[in-house]
Specification:
mainly alpha; 5 helices; flat
């Protein structure tokens, strides 16, 4: 794994704090239950990381980061490129800055893909 134990614990701690905050902000019990489930998974992975040599916390943080990045690219493509939503943030931005919302969606998608690839590259460089 590319990250050291301290940075992974900081990332997992920040994720746990964010989930704890969302638990109190959530409007329904489905979201609250998911928050508690993921807080529990973080706690279990943290205990495994500390008590064994298995990098459970590193794998969990890496998985969540990659899945968020992939979903971001998919969501930009789905909302702004493949179908047009009249009241999206891209259409409001296009009204302010000019151009079409589809054009801004392509630009945002390219930026998201470049940052995703840059993150993978940096992780691989730091590993070696």
């Amino acid at each position: 794994m590319s990250a050291d134990s301290t940075s992974v614990q900081i990332a997992a701690g920040l994720l746990g704090v964010a989930l704890f905050a969302v638990f109190f902000i959530a409007d329904n019990w489905t979201l609250r239950s998911l928050c508690l489930l993921f807080i529990g998974i973080i706690a279990i992975c943290w205990v495994l990381e500390v008590t064994t040599s298995f990098p459970a916390l590193q794998i969990m943080v890496l998985f969540i980061g990659v899945m968020n990045s992939l979903f971001s690219i998919y969501d930009i493509h789905d909302d702004l490129i493949s179908r047009r939503v009249n009241h999206s943030d891209a259409s409001l931005f296009a009204d302010l800055a000019g151009g079409s919302s589809r054009c801004w969606g392509v630009i945002w998608c390219i930026i998201s893909i470049v940052l995703f690839i840059l993150g993978i590259y940096i992780a691989l460089v730091l590993e070696s």
